[in-house]
Amino acid sequence: MAGMRSRQRMFAAVMRLLLKCLRLGRRRRFKLVRQAEQLWHYGHLCLRSLLYNSFTNGDVVLDSLFEPIYWLVDHVTRWFGVTYTPAWICWHLAYGHWNLIMIVFHYYMAITTSPGHPPQAKDDLTGVSICRKCIAPKPARTHHCSICNRCVLKMDHHCPWLNNCVGHYNHRYFFSFCLFMTMGCIYCSISGWEMFRDAYAAIERMKLLEKERLQVAANQTYYQTPPPTFSFRQRAFHKSVVYLWVLCSSVALALGALTVWHAALITRGETSIERHINKKERQRLQKKGKVFRNPYSYGGWDNWKVFLGVDMPRHWLTRVLLPSPHLPHGTGLSWDLPPCVTKQRAPLLAI
Fold first, then answer.
1. Does residue 159 have an active-site annotation?
2. DSSP string of 95-123?
3. In angstroms, what CA-CA distances link 32 with 21, 46, 93, 182, 218?
């Protein structure tokens, strides 16, 4: 009996200890949950105290979210001017990008396209002269370039802008680059006239205010408020606009004159070198009472069609107004009648 009672006492003591541990665990869990709730409420209160504003509502939040978009629109559209209509803006976007694409395309093709060179083997061509400098066949309209040190088919000149000769295969690219570059400079000069006038007036106003400020400083009249000075950024902006307009206008005049000159040569079916040769030949025959006729001229309109590679009406769009890498007529070794020319070639000499 004594052993049974001792075991009962021991079991009761263990149960009391277990219940006590359970109560302590429950209290600790409750305490942890209560501390977590207090921490949550405290953090929420701190966050609200930092972000709370009596003037804040849904409209203010939306305006804050759209503020970057407003900034982008203000800083982009202000370059178009406040008086521009949507149609005028569309014209700027369409024409400006088209002109830029045409300039980049034709310049890249002009510098990367070989002007064309005659074959070095003498057996490939018969009935042609031999170049005295490179001792190679020299077909009609071929000339030796002293810079490239080789003959070039239908050579016009060696262009330092392209670091390449202008010949049979890249003559159209060179002329198109000059034409579209001139058009782009004229477009920039006309479009930027208002900005140039405002910038020039601002620079003159800067000079006047700077002169007044120096006079005030020299007289030491401290009771007068000196005129405001312009920042370096404002000065640089106005001077850059003036420089841009003057540069575009100057390039438009110089490059435009060169483009008109080459257009006149193309109309006559000549290159720059052939013009000098034909001029001397015309003067020589004139003394004999004869008239010189250019054998490579098919008339003004047909010369342009041959030069641009226009064989049908739709080519004016696909080959002239849009970038096109089509090859010119012929190989540059012989000069047969192109398919786009309807009338026959004029004889070389006519009495």
1. yes
2. HHHHHHHHHHHHHHHHHHS------S-TT
3. 16, 21, 66, 80, 78
Is 155 within 8 Å of 166 (Cβ atoms)?
Answer: yes
Give the ranges where 192-231 is alpha helix by DSSP (H).
Answer: 193-219
Determine the longest span between alpha carbons in the chain, in angstroms. Answer: 161
Structural contact between residues 324 and 283, judged by C-beta atoms closer than 8 angstroms = no
The rounded distance, in Å, linking the Cα atoms of 187 and 143 is 37
Which one of 131, 134, 148, 159 is the catalytic residue?
159
Answer yes or no: are the C-beta atoms of 172 and 309 closer than 8 Å. Answer: yes
Which H or E run contains 129?
Answer: strand 129-130
Q: For the segment 112-162, what is each residue's pLDDT rounded down to a tens digit?
A: 999 999 887 666 666 678 888 888 888 889 999 989 888 999 999 999 999
Confidence of residue 330 (pLDDT cuts 50, 70, 90): confident
What is the C-alpha to C-alpha distance for residues 337 and 34, in angstroms, rounded to an integer? 101
